[in-house]
Amino acid sequence: LVANLGNLVNRTMKFLNSFYGGVIPTGSIGKIERAFFKEVNGKTKEAINLLDEVKIKDSLRGIMNVSKLGNQYFQKSEPWKNFKLNRKKADTSIFVLANFIKDLAILIKPFMPETSELIEKQLNIKTNGLDDLGKRSILPGHKVGMARVLFERLNNDKVEQFREKFGGKKK
Fold this sequence. Notes:
- By secondary structure, the protein is mostly helical.
- 67% of the residues lie in helices and 0% in strands.
- It is built from seven helices and no strands.
- α1 (2-20) packs across α5, α3 packs antiparallel against α5 (87-108) and α4 (79-85) runs antiparallel to α5 (87-108).
- 30% of the residues are buried.
């Protein structure tokens, strides 16, 4: 699930850097975006409520499911195709995704503060915690930083090292 988050951030940021020169385009929120935000807001509230109930694993799983919605939106909106065919639609998708990623950075901060800060750095912003959640505060014309990989893949040798070091005693 964490790869889902890293993939979404990386794809969006690379697209922003490559196709928009790192500048947030103007987006017009339509029916598709309103439905997306409605679903995201519902799942986000669930994840926050789970965190309030100190159901840490469930909350994190919920946040990763929110991230999954962003990947689905990216796929369905096809900004790579629409950049030439329907520029306004591509602009909207990237505007929405940049703000969505900002919200993910806020949501993961209690769990992965360094990752959250790396996302903020890539977006060239500093969030104000939950007060910024759901706000489209990354405005058109804002200049973002460069895309960076959030998580490195672990090869089998590294996984085995971690398993030996942190796997506990075997009976």
